[in-house]
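Hello,

Our lab assistant flagged a job as stuck in the queue for most of the afternoon. It eventually completed. Since we weren't sure the result was trustworthy after the delay, we are filing this so someone can double-check. Below is the sequence as submitted and the structure that was eventually returned. Let us know if re-running is recommended.
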Amino acid sequence: MASSLRTVVTHLNKDLRKQANSVKDYSMTEVETIMHLFRSSPLLPTELAALTKITTQSMSQILKKMDEQGIIKRSPSKDDKRKVYIFLTPLGKKMVSKVKDDTDEWLKGAIEKLTDKDKGVLIKALPVLNKLI
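-- returned structure --
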């Protein structure tokens, strides 16, 4: 069961990623970083590195790229000037919205191809799947 679920989730994730045209030039870690900032902004670079399970040095390179492209902005902490918080710019937020719209539209079309019975099974499975994450 674990192997089958992993295979399905992996293929679904790849198919969804193919639909996200606005992030095709970004690695999975870069996209994950953007999504963490979208959900929990602002974050420190060390927090982002821990969330994505990469080194702070690797995260620094990712953030440099995103900063140069105008996706993120850095803001010094008011309490501790050594700390710099990272948050998405309006361009970064727009990118996330576009990705969500693109992938939701594709997934909606894929779901519409299912039978009513399969849709019912999928609806019942969602709470169980949510417990896995």
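-- support follow-up --
The delay was a queue issue, not a problem with the job. The result is valid. The radius of gyration is 18 Å. The longest strand covers residues 72-76.
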